[in-house]
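Minutes, project check-in
Item: structure for the 286-residue chain
Input as provided by the requester:
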Amino acid sequence: MASSLGDLSIVSFPALEPIYFTKAEDDIFSLDFSPADNDTVPPSIFPYSPVFLRIQIAYVTAKTLHILPFRDSKRIRLQNKKTFHDLHAAASKSATYETPSPGKSFRNIRFLSPTKVLATVNDRAAKRAYWAVYVLNTELGWRECKVRGMGRGIKGVTGLDVCLKRKLVAIATSDITVHIFHMDTFAVPLLFYSLVGLTFMGQALQTIDKVADFTLTQIAFSPDGKYLACSSVANSISLIPLAEGLETPSSWRDSIMEFLFYFLGLVVLVIAVQAFMLMRSRGVKA
């Protein structure tokens, strides 16, 4: 539980007894536990024996993002004991990050897996919104990947949720619209992040306009991922059925091919402009 005073409390269930407390430097906008399900860990990363990894807690204020270790553990698959000990040690350390740049503020945070965190960042002055991805590394601990813009059509994010069952990510925006993305959107290789990190390459799988009459405050997937609940500042709740087949997106390779297509087009345009200027200069000299 988080409060506008910056208090973060964890209670046991069903006794509801306090077991953890910390205080943030400002209002806590959003918080999340790392998933405790084996199926949330990609087999390509942890393909073998199940072991335990420390559960994490992540939360954001306007200016900072915090990732804290928690005392319980969960099962995940790891290749060997050394990898487990390295990753467990990395997960046992706290991490704090400031907003990507002045003028921007964190709004929401969710775990995509035990080793990956997704946050939304708003820039009110520029009227733009960004994704920020953080990855747990066995040697470096948590580290920030490149921040990517969501596109100029998205001016601000008010809500975020993740459906691990269907691998979907949903955001509510300031224009009372909901956008659904596939989780693979955030699985682009780090080399590709560094090349096109300032542009969000993924496209929304589904967009729902005018979900309510007033600004949306929270969104949440149903356990089976077939519905999305949205609440607004007018104390209204909307239940939205989601389209079938959203679990099969285009791969990150398609995004790379799209990027290469536009890059080659730009190269051809630059060469054509240079050739035109060269011919023009020769014509003037003649």
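Outcome recorded: The longest strand covers residues 64-77.
No further action items on this chain.
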